[in-house]
């Protein structure tokens, strides 16, 4: 056996998966206690902008948007101008025919999901997709629930079933993966500067003070 300088197959790349962002809506966020609302919005924005920037096939879905839950976060919809939101009545996204039609139209077996709430709107579709042979990742810090316990037990349950957890920043950096990829370097660091918290501040400082950049 010998090592080669190639990425592992378990790493995500822009063209090998579909991102499904689920129920990032006002009514759902009001009761979300496992993550601060500002951090949740930043992480959702980071994921959405990274996916849009890298050309990831993305499905945006809401539940009872007009009658109860309200609009999807503008941080997400602004990243996908003009994209149709698939509104549902079902708590389990995987039981909605329009969403499944879109999953089948795109045709990718690897799915990445995030949304509100973890224990209902994420557990439902992830376990359903796994049952049908899909490979599923969940962006844990772009999800939230009514309590820490609810979020953590939901993550435990999904991981035990075979879901692979990751974080919002990890997701973006895994799409970039090499700072020498100059065509997406400015986009990636720009998203990090805007939504990446302390990491973004570090990029701003390094570029302002020293003109520094990764990979150069």
Describe this entry's structure for a reader:
This protein has 216 residues and is α/β, with parallel strands linked by helices. The chain has a 6-stranded parallel β-sheet, sandwiched between helices. Helix 2 (37-54) runs parallel beside helix 8, helix 2 packs antiparallel against helix 9 and helix 8 runs antiparallel to helix 9 (182-195). 50% of the residues lie in helices and 13% in strands. It contains 10 helices and 6 strands. It has helices at residues 26-30, 37-54, 65-69, 74-77, 97-106, 118-131, 148-161, 168-176, 182-195, 197-210, and strands at residues 18-22, 57-63, 86-88, 110-115, 135-139, 164-166.
Which structural traits does this protein have?
alpha/beta; 216 residues; 6 strands; globular
Radius of gyration: 17 Å
Number of helices: 10
Oligomeric form: single chain
Characterize the largest beta sheet: strand count, sense, and whether it forms a barrel.
6 strands, parallel
% residues in beta strands: 5-15%
The backbone outline, from C-alpha atoms, is globular
Describe the strand arrangement of the main beta sheet, using strand numbers. Answer: 3-2-1-4-5-6
**Are there runs of 5+ residues with pLDDT below 50, and where?**
none
Q: What's the rounded overall pLDDT mean? A: 94
Measured as a percent range, the helix fraction is: 40-55%
Secondary-structure content class:
alpha/beta
Q: CA-to-CA gap between the ends?
A: 32 Å
């Amino acid at each position: 056996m010998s090592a080669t300088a190639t990425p592992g197959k378990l790493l995500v790349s822009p063209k090998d998966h579909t991102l499904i962002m689920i129920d990032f809506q006002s009514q759902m966020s009001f009761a979300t206690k496992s993550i601060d609302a500002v951090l949740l919005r930043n992480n959702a924005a980071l994921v959405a902008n990274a996916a849009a920037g890298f050309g990831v096939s993305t499905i945006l879905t809401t539940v009872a948007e007009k009658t109860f839950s309200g609009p999807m976060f503008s941080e997400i919809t602004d990243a996908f101008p003009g994209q149709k939101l698939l509104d549902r009545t079902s708590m389990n996204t995987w039981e909605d025919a329009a969403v499944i039609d879109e999953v089948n139209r795109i045709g990718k077996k690897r799915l990445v999901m995030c949304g509100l709430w973890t224990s209902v709107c994420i557990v439902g579709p992830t376990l359903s997709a796994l049952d049908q042979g899909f490979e599923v990742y969940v962006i844990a810090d772009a999800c939230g629930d009514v309590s820490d316990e609810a979020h953590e037990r939901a993550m435990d349950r999904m991981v035990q079933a075979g879901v692979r957890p990751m974080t919002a920043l990890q997701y973006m950096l895994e799409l970039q993966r090499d700072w020498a990829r100059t065509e997406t370097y400015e986009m990636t660091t720009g998203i990090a500067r805007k939504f990446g918290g302390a990491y973004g501040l570090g990029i701003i400082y390094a570029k302002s003070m020293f003109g520094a950049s990764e990979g150069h």
